[in-house]
Every structure is written in C-alpha cells, then in structure tokens.
Amino acid sequence: EHHLLPQCSALENVLIPTLAAGKTTPAAAERAKRLLARVGLQDRLEHRPAELSGGERQRVAVARALIQEPALLLADEPTGNLDRTTAAAIGKLLLELQEQEQTMLIVVTHSLELAGLFQRRVELDEGRLLGA
Prior knowledge:
The chain is of the alpha+beta class. About 45% of the residues lie in helices and about 10% in strands. The chain is built from 5 helices and 4 strands. The strands form 2 sheets. It has a two-stranded parallel sheet with strand order 1-2. Strand 3 and strand 4 form a beta hairpin. The longest helix has 18 residues, at about 85-100. It is globular, with a radius of gyration of 15 Å. It starts with 9 loop residues before the first helix and ends with a strand.
C-alpha cells in the first residue's frame, strides 16, 4: 500500500529512515513534525495508518521520503491509488516540497494530469524516451 507500519503513528512512520540509519535524534523528531505540518498532518501525529485516509497515508509517505533531506526524490506512481482531487493535491504538494527542500524530483506516472503539473516531461514508448 503506502509502506506504513500498521502499529506506528504517523510521526513514528516518518522517523523510520532515521531509525534504520541510527540517526533518530530530537532534531530528527522536530524535522518530522515540521514535515508532517507542511503536508497538513500536524493534528494527526499520533494517528495509526488505519485511522488515516489514503491521501493522508500518502502525505505521510512524502514526509518520510524527505526526512533525511535527500538530494533526489524518486516517486513511482505517487497518486496511483488516489481519487482525482487528492491526486492533484499530492502532485502540487510534491512540487511545493521539491522547491522548498531543494530536492530534485523525478516522478513516474501513467497520469497525464499529474504529468501536466511538471515543467519537463518525457515519455517512454516501447523502450524509447520521447521528448528527452
């Protein structure tokens, strides 16, 4: 689904990469809270995945992807399981966070609507890149 551990709160889920890297610190927890606030989940920090909508789970996944301040963020069908309104909101959120976090963003999608949000698009057609 969105690769959330079922018993972990939203905050704990965002911190999973820092646990794996042995870098869970008070500063990491504060960054996780800031990222969750930026994706509109400041009031859902302690909620478990079962208590979150699909769009909220996806926003937790976006915050988790950004917790380690990556130079590159790869998003594979980030809106694939979402309704159109939520998908558009997640697409815009990815763009905003990409700019704010100064992260390179590469999105793979079948959604023409999502692809239309980005300034540069290439198409893979039978193994060939078009528009590159």
